[in-house]
Amino acid sequence: MKTRDNYGKSSSDDEAGLDLRGLIADFRRYSLLFGVVFCTAFVLILFPLLSQTPRYVASSAVMIDPRSVNITNASEQVLSDLPQDAATIDTEVSLIKSASLAEMAIRELELDKDPEFNPFLNPRKKYFGLVTEPQRPEAALTPLEKKARQQIITNIVLGGLTVRREGTTRVINISYSSTSPEKAMRIADEWANFYLAQQMEARFEATRSASGWLDSRLDELRGQVEAAERAVQQYKIANNLMSSTGSTLTEQEISSLNQQLAVVRVDEAESEARLATARRQLAAGSTGEDVGEALNSGVVANLRSQSAEVSRRVAELEARYGPLHPEIIKAKREKADIDQQIRNEIARIISNLEAQVQVQRQRTSSLAGSVGNARGVLAGNNRAQVRLNELERDAQAVRSLYESYLERFKETSSQEGMAKSDARIVAKAKLPMGPSSPKVSLSVALALVGAFGAGAAAVLGRRAFDSVLTTSTDVERHLRQPYLAGLPDLASTVEKGHKRTDPVTYVTEKPLSVFAEGFRSLRASLLYTRDGEQARVIALTSCLPGEGKTTASMCLAQIVAMAGQTVVVVDCDLRRKSINAYVQDQPEAGILEVLDGSATLDQALTDGPGGKVKLLPVKPESYTTRDVFGDPSMDGLIAELKERFDVVIMDTAPVLPVVDTRILVRKVDAVVMLVHWRKTPRDAAQKALDLLISADAPMAGVALSQIDVNQQAKYAYGDSGFYYKAYKGYYTE
Q: How confident is the model at residue 621 (pLDDT cuts 50, 70, 90)?
């Protein structure tokens, strides 16, 4: 039978996702732990919240106002209005929360004399409040200590302030929290007034400073204007210069000559370009017929037409008479004469181009000389004007600067005494009708959330240390083996006060009970192996002692016998000899005697409870150090048992402490490993499985034993045991 090394999902796959069913099962499983932690955390969180000193919150509101009152014609103020962008308004929010405003509030409202804000007015407490001593007097403090105290008071005052912008509006809400509703209302209102006063003071100070600086600057500029204008007049007198509004004749003449010179230079460049092009064509081997002027010449065109006509006639004559005919010779001479005329005409055209270039050069030179003479005259006439213009520009610059300062001084002087704030109060604080904190509903909600988190953390922590197996899902996930059945604990299936009964007897007497159904399910799982072959030799084992192997073997045998099959239970735990508890008389021979040949199988077999099950026990005083299960005699015994019985059940020793089982499992058809429900550690079960698999054991799967069905209904969410109460009435007991 093949082993199942990878059944279902691997543990790494399962751990990658969130197992909601497992979490629900864990909360049901540890409901008592969750309840204790939840109640404790709820009380510990709620009591401090509700025992706080009641505080009251009052709010006022200011708006950054973009509107202005235009009393004067001043285009600009010394200190400009605030922009209305979000960054500016957020900056104003920060200014309202500044320490400077807090210090103003402390000074004007005398908050440093209030014990709520000045902790140094109360006696200092030491040793958890058991001992008090007076604070040091103000006169005994150093300047640094006084500054530190002032900073502490400022921080306490700012701690009660909340400033926030109302959405995307220009309205800023100023809230203050205090133990007194009247105090909260007064501070919230005064804080808004302090903010407006701070803005007004900033404008007053800026205007006064600007006016004083402008006045001193005007005195300096006035003297500079007088000196500059005096220098202009003196220069005009000294150089006999008259003012004019238009250009001089020399300037007009130079402008006209410059225009003519530009046209002549264009013509010169055009002539030189035509001549250069013609020369390049001739240098490249051209006959001159493709020169632009030759192409446009009527004489050349007429001569070329004649040459073409003669060439045609020569071709006709050569075709008719041959190359030596007199007419042909005459026609060729005629063509040569025409070609010479074309060359002569082209030469005349090139010569004409050269003459045109010389003419254009002379015109350009003449005009350039005229322009130079006119410029010399203009330079002499304007030499004195340059200095005059410089003086006039200096005078005009000083005059313009003086006039601008004078105008700004008038505007600034008119603004003094009319400064306004960029904000205005739009809502005064109202007297709070009730405390804002502690809020019972919010405190309860926080306590519930905190308590639930603490309870959940306790459950998850307990779950992290839970290394036992509870459900079929646990078996398949962690052990990666098929889950065969859940075998109930008999005490959990019967009613309280029921007469205590042996499990094997109970299975026989109550075949339709929940207890018997677990073993019937195990038999159904073992009836056939995965490859379709019937499993006749079945070994029941466990990783540790005390997991119910013998009870499970006997009960399973009773179920098999009641199904009409012959069955024998073989005690393969040579140390415990647990099957002997079900034998009426002490056996005279057992499995060891059969294996060593000192007794026959019939002599060793005995009847089990009810007489339907045969038992092959271990003689009480028998003991051996031989490897009897690896001996060929064991193979013969198993073969003989298979011939005489339909099913052979072997009650083996635990895997971890005893090696016998790892030798025996090679000889059976199916191996069932029992795991004590919620007791056997996962690591121990996995280690035992690894040993069995390494021994090539034909693993059928794992069964959970000694299950408390009532507790399973709480723990096994999604498992069949979770619905125990729903189908409990389906069984007789």
A: confident
